[in-house]
Design brief:
With 326 residues, the chain is α/β, with parallel strands linked by helices. 48% of the residues lie in helices and 13% in strands. The chain contains 15 helices and eleven strands. Helix 1 links the parallel strand 1 and strand 2. The termini are far apart.
Length: 326
């Protein structure tokens, strides 16, 4: 039997905590309905007997405290909310326990912003990680040694798993069910809970937020210029001249401050403007392309799909109310 320890961090988001418990429990119920033995032994593991979650609106009771769990196969870290630095401080007693469990063979899966708690153990250093795209800048600032992959729904590296934003945690739970209970069971659970299997990317849901929480003033000014003039053609050389920097120095400082090259930043600002127009406006794809400063339809489509995972027309059809109604 697979022993699963679902953590109850202080300030956890109830949806991911209870949602993961429900999916794993449903596996056991389906197997018992067909005369089999349960696959999972599911425990809710806390620092205290009772833990308030979801901004204090709910209280969750632990079935085990961390010192009572000497061995486990899988640790699941639900999403946490509120001030993330405060949340990490409030839950720091989980860190040594998780590290010991992992060194003794336990796998660990973080759901959404639970990646912050997982990263605080150091077990993600040098590994790929997904989390909610909203917190990408904060995560990179706090854990620069982790390779954040913002577009991914799931990462899977040597017994360390992470998931992207919000309800994409369901895809990670299905991934784990497939691993431990088989493909057929994962498909059945996906059908029972009406979850789309094998979503790979959260790119289409992301809203670009330029990283401005840095102290490099020329880079901030360059960011603001790009954002205020996205309809125009802006070059790296132009920006370097405007802010009295060499091209090499600007590119180095810009990448360090924003985690994007200058060219990437220009592209992302243009595509974000295009997304908003495609979501709400009545212009066709070519009109939107010209509106945001592209003149080559192939280049526009290629860049748009690289950033969002969808073609401009697919994006418009997915999110524009008028397009959906047609």
């Amino acid at each position: 039997m697979i022993h699963i320890s679902i953590l109850i961090p202080k300030g956890a988001i109830l949806a991911s905590l209870e949602g993961s418990r429900l999916l794993f429990s449903q596996v056991n119920q389906l197997i018992k309905m067909h005369g089999g033995e349960p696959v999972f032994d599911i425990q809710l593991v806390g620092l205290t007997q009772e833990t308030t979650v979801s901004g204090g609106l709910f209280t969750v009771n632990s079935t085990k405290l961390i010192h009572e769990v000497q061995k486990t196969n899988l640790i699941v870290i639900p999403a946490i909310d509120g001030d993330l630095k405060q949340a990490l401080e409030a839950n720091k007693d989980f860190v040594a326990w998780m590290t010991d469990m992992h060194h003794n063979g336990a796998e660990i899966a973080s759901l959404c912003l639970g990646a912050f708690l997982l990263a605080s153990t150091g077990l993600l250093d040098g590994k790929k990680c997904a989390t909610h795209w909203v917190a990408a800048n904060e995560f990179r600032a706090m854990f620069p040694q982790v390779e954040l992959i913002t577009e991914k729904i799931i990462t899977d590296e040597n017994g360390i798993y992470t998931s992207g934003g919000a309800f994409s945690y369901l895809n990670l739970i299905l991934h784990l069910i497939e691993k431990y209970a088989g493909r057929d069971m994962a498909i059945m659970i996906a059908k029972v809970f009406a979850v789309q299997l094998e979503r790979d990317s959260q790119s289409a849901f992301m809203i670009f937020q330029g990283q401005k929480e840095h102290e490099d003033e020329p880079v901030k000014k360059a960011q603001e210029f790009i954002e205020n003039n996205y309809k125009e053609k802006t070059t790296v050389d132009q920006l370097a001249y405007m802010y009295a920097l060499s091209r090499r120095s600007l590119e180095r400082r810009f990448k360090k401050a924003t985690n994007n090259t200058v060219t990437e930043y220009i592209q992302r600002v243009k595509i974000e403007a295009a997304k908003k127009e495609l979501e709400t406006g009545s212009k066709n794809v070519n009109e939107v392309m010209y509106e945001v400063g592209y003149v080559d339809i192939k280049a526009f489509r290629t860049t748009f799909k690289k950033i969002t995972g969808l073609s401009p027309l697919e994006y418009r059809n997915k999110y524009n109310k008028l397009a959906v109604a047609v």
